[in-house]
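hiii so um. not sure if this is the right channel but i have a protein structure encoded as tokens and i wanna go backwards to a sequence. like what aa goes where. can anyone help
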């Protein structure tokens, strides 16, 4: 085709484009060339082999009447195996019903099977469309008319049977559900008394007669989720193939790219792999593109009304018509049940269905009968989960039935029952869709505000466990806006707590969070709910720490001791950990260790304390608390224990349920790995933290994660990159109002600036950090900041040696006062190196280093102790 041409990607695309244009590819929905994953460009137009029709003399089984089969689709994605199975079943068993809900593709498959069997039946295939019949009495006459059988009496079926007694023919009876009794009698009669006749029926409910074999047609295979899939991989799924073909037919000329994959996958998934629904959704793409189509999909009733192929039967041209066709053929009781069930999103149990549908005096047995009938008509799917039957409406069916529910005037009453149902149960992740729907109704209807308040409080814990911070914050805020005096108290406290926690992690540390926590503490104290009071004081303490108000945070922790004396063991443990954390941050390491050890003793106590922990204290922040102990241990000179604890916490993070507990634990642990020189481990922790922050939209911790990475880059000899990240993180944390470790990051920035040749700016930065730490009460790393300042002062010209000595002495003295042996060793070693550089007397200088070093009995291979030991051994050797 292209002689003397190197066929590269650009040339290939150009010629394929020209070929498509010449053929009119895509015009009126016709496709000739398409891209198939794993195969490349393929010719997909139907190829028909024509042969001379046998004469009646040569083939007495052939009739002058046409077979009536509609033309096959040009390409039938994902149904080839179904057609092969169906043709084999028909040849072997003679009578098969293709069963499935409306729009699933039953007629398409049956027509393809009919075409495939034209040769085996020597052309004796007859397609009879029953969907247009309004009277079951016309079933047999219609089939007889299609076969050319004259009807000379009222018993058309008798004549039909006699005519077909010795003839081999395949009858395809399409859309039997609305005339199911008459179609069943005809199919059974022919199966039993016309042994050469084969019958293929399509229906939304089984015919349930002698000889029938059911072939249940499932939805088109659809990716469960888009994660990890590229454009080529996703096109191997039949649902996606149908979507892309119909999109191209609608005028969309684009190629699927990796960025589009989530939209296409979500569309196919939400439409349950139903072919007609997918085709109708894709038909919007040519006009509005993929993003516009996704917006239309959110307006699902609009999709129901979208018109499909003009050549399709009227009831199949829109989903709405298709649903109406099925709905109109239900009994009144079945319609009522179907309408009321439409408030469920996803699966539901029989018990839940009873709550929603039954009125006083209704029989539970009658409901079960109705559910079975509706399921038999393919309007309701059933599966078995953990030994129990669960039900589910296809999304298209649910949206249609919900419209009918609104028209019936029962929407508010049924939605209220639905919302109340989820108020009164322990919620799981599987209930998420129903809870969202119930909350949406509750806060949009005047009749729903009271139940919405209770549901928001019930749902808050589930939202938090699933990491849906913004959603939790929003629903709690709406509930608090409409809560009345009758519901204030415990219910309001629960909402305030959930709002504050979720808002802290999704929005940042705003004044609205502080106000909610203070209000919650006041309500708890007024009602004598000591455990609630301690717990809310704990959240307030965390809030103040994140704001960088360490002195006030310590005051709140100390306030918790009063209600903790009257609280359960869980409240006492919470208070102890709060005190440990606050004293650690304020630089009181000896006191911090005492409180942490006290909390651990309470945790390991038998009986009530242990069960209380399992119930709540262990549920939210226990790993962060253990990290507090580990950090204090390192500062106290117990590096091996601190490192072992940090590694244990990191190993346990994947098993934690709360994203913010995971992130808090990782934030607290990362510094221990840096202090111990385990920089590769620190980098892994930062990678995991960053992934959590992005996955769960923990916006308030994005700056912290970035700052940790910047600090690590400075430590690993990439100061320029590190300084850039640290500056960006500082700006982000101002927006987030998160200043919990601002002095740590400022110290790292100062060291990075010094390493990039900006000693003056580095010194100014560290001095600002020291001033900020003293103002906020963030003394836990103040000895280290003082040490870094002294080191940076040495680089100034001329060196002010007395000022340098004072700075080092201040760092050492502060470390001793805090009980921070690790900082004391680091400052003492740095001071000794500076004095030795000046030529001071080694023995006197190193006496102080040796004295501090001798107080360590673990962590001897950590960087600080190796540095001190090397300094001592080198000088002794000389």
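sure thing!! here u go:
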């Amino acid at each position: 085709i292209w002689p003397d041409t190197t066929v590269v990607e650009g040339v290939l695309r150009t010629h394929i484009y020209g070929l498509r244009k010449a053929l009119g590819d895509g015009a009126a929905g016709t496709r000739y060339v398409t891209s198939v994953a794993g195969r490349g460009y393929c010719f997909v137009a139907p190829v028909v082999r024509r042969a001379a029709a046998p004469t009646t003399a040569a083939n007495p089984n052939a009739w002058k009447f046409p077979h009536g089969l509609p033309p096959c689709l040009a390409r039938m994605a994902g149904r080839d195996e179904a057609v092969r199975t169906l043709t084999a079943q028909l040849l072997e068993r003679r009578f098969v019903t293709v069963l499935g809900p409306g729009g699933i593709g039953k007629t398409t498959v049956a027509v393809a099977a009919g075409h495939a069997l034209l040769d085996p039946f020597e052309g004796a295939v007859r397609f009879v469309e029953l969907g247009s019949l309004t009277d079951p009495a016309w079933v047999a006459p219609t089939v007889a008319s299609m076969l050319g059988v004259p009807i000379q009496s009222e018993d058309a079926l008798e004549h039909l049977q006699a005519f077909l007694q010795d003839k081999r023919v395949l009858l395809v009876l399409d859309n039997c559900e609305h005339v199911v009794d008459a179609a069943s009698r005809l199919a059974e009669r022919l199966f039993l008394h016309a042994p050469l006749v084969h019958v293929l029926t399509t229906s939304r409910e089984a015919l349930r007669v002698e000889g029938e074999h059911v072939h249940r047609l499932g939805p088109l295979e659809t990716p469960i989720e888009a994660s990890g899939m590229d454009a080529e991989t996703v096109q191997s799924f039949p649902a996606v193939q149908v979507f892309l073909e119909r999109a191209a037919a609608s005028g969309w000329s684009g190629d699927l790219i990796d960025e589009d994959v989530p939209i296409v996958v979500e569309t196919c998934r939400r439409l349950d792999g139903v072919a007609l629904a997918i085709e109708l959704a894709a038909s919007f793409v040519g006009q509005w593109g993929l993003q516009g189509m996704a917006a239309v999909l959110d307006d699902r009733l609009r999709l129901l009304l979208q018109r499909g192929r003009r050549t399709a039967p009227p009831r199949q041209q829109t989903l709405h018509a298709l649903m109406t066709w099925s709905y109109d053929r239900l009994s009144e009781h079945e319609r009522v049940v179907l309408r009321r069930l439409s408030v469920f999103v996803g699966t539901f149990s029989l018990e839940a269905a009873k709550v929603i549908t039954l009125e006083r005096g209704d029989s539970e047995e009658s409901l079960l009968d109705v559910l079975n009938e509706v399921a038999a008509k393919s309007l309701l799917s059933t599966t078995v989960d953990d030994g129990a039957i669960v039900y589910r409406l296809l999304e298209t069916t649910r949206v249609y039935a919900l419209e009918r529910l609104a028209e019936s005037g029962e929407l508010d009453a049924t939605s209220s029952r639905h919302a109340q149902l989820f108020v009164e149960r322990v919620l799981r992740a599987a209930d998420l869709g129903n809870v969202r729907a119930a909350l949406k109704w509750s806060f949009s209807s005047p009749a729903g505000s009271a139940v919405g308040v209770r549901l928001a409080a019930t749902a808050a814990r589930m939202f938090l466990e699933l990491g849906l911070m913004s959603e939790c914050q929003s629903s709690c805020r709406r509930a608090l806006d409409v809560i009345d005096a009758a519901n204030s108290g415990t219910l309001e406290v629960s909402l305030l707590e959930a709002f504050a926690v979720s808002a802290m992690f999704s929005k940042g540390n705003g004044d609205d969070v502080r106000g909610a926590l203070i209000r919650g503490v006041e309500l708890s104290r007024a009602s004598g709910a000591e455990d609630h009071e301690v717990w809310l004081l704990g959240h307030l303490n965390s809030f103040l720490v994140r704001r960088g108000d360490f002195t006030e945070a310590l005051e709140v922790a100390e306030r918790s001791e009063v209600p903790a004396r009257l609280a359960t063991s869980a409240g006492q443990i919470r208070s102890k950990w709060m005190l440990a954390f606050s004293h650690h941050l304020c630089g009181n390491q000896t006191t911090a260790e005492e409180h942490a050890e006290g909390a651990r003793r309470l945790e390991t106590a038998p009986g009530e304390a242990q069960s209380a922990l399992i119930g709540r204290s262990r549920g939210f922040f226990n790993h962060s608390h253990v990290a507090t102990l580990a950090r204090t241990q390192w500062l106290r000179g117990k590096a091996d224990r601190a490192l072992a604890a940090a590694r244990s916490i990191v190993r346990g993070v994947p098993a934690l349920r709360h994203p913010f507990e995971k992130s808090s634990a990782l934030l607290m642990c990362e510094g221990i790995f840096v202090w111990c020189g385990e920089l590769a481990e620190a980098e892994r922790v930062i990678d995991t933290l960053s992934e959590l922050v992005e996955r769960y939209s923990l916006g308030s911790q994005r700056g912290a994660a970035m700052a940790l990475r910047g600090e690590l880059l400075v430590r690993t000899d990439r100061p320029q990159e590190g300084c850039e990240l640290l500056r960006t993180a500082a700006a982000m944390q101002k927006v987030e109002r998160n200043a919990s470790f601002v002095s740590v990051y400022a110290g790292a920035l100062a060291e990075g600036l010094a390493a990039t040749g900006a000693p003056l700016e580095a010194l100014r930065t560290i001095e600002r950090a020291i001033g900020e730490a003293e103002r906020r009460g963030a003394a836990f790393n103040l000895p280290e900041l003082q040490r870094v300042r002294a080191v940076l002062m040495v680089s100034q010209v001329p060196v002010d040696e007395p000022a340098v000595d004072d700075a080092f002495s201040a760092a050492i003295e502060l470390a001793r006062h805090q009980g921070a042996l690790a900082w004391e060793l680091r400052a003492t070693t740095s001071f000794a190196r500076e004095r030795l550089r000046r030529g001071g007397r080694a023995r006197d200088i190193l006496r102080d280093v040796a004295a501090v070093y001798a107080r360590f009995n673990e962590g001897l291979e950590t960087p600080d102790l190796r540095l001190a030991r090397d300094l001592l051994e080198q000088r002794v050797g000389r």
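oh and The first strand starts at residue 33 and ends at 36.
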